[in-house]
User: Fold this.
Amino acid sequence: MKFGCMSLDFKRFPLEHCFRLAGAYGMDGLEIFCARKHLHLPSFTAKDAQTIRGYEKRYGVEVPMLTPNTLGQDLNICSDDPAEREEALTLLKRGVDAAEMIEAPRLLITADHPGFFRDDREVWSVLVESVKELTAYAEGKGVRIVMEPVTPMESPVVTTARDCLRLFQDVDSPALYAMLDVVPPVVVHEPFSQYFELLGERMDYIHICDTDGVTDAHIRLGRGVLPAADAINTFLHHGYQGYVTAELYTEGFRDPELMLSNTARALGQIRAELGL
Assistant:
């Protein structure tokens, strides 16, 4: 099992600063948030990729996943506007290209809120069509497209492991995977084990934080209702050996290094307890 942090939590700092602190606090990886200050997909070049590979080598920190800035934006692959879907897919394809250039194995996607008064069947059909196009593009580039379920407050389209399984069946692409963010299953009262039992080897990534169990807040470990050590032990019980990346955007922007220090200490105690 490897542990990482997200550049999203450091969105007010330069990308190299994120790499330096990730290495200093013992993280294996840095998940890069694809926004202008860190990795701007529309203008990303081979020179930018070379710079990021240099950061990886200098600070001993790899990039396990790229995360495009699409949630809550006008870039929705579930939109009823074909122009918006096309723009979103163009950006995500640039994300696939960027991941390939820096040898990052994954690109994260979400099914953003489709808007009210939409027919659920039509929304799902549009999502499947969009993901089919994106995964077909990614298949030849060695990049996994990783769907992240979100809370029902963020979007009702993909919120559970069963939603991911349905998407796997309807898209039918070897490039499509899913991940577990610990907040949505707690909010919807879904056991973590369902992700592993239903998705098997396609369960490919984890976001860890604490949660109040009610909202979509991502808070520091030990401040909510989630017993983090037991959660990680559950992941181990199901044979998971991939990435567990801390996501603390709810309270991390004021002093993200303080939150990273807190996370590193908490994870260090858990790793010692579990023999990791």
Remarks:
- The chain has ten helices and eight strands.
- Strands lie at 2-6, 29-34, 66-68, 106-109, 144-147, 176-181, 203-208, 243-246.
- The mean pLDDT is 96.
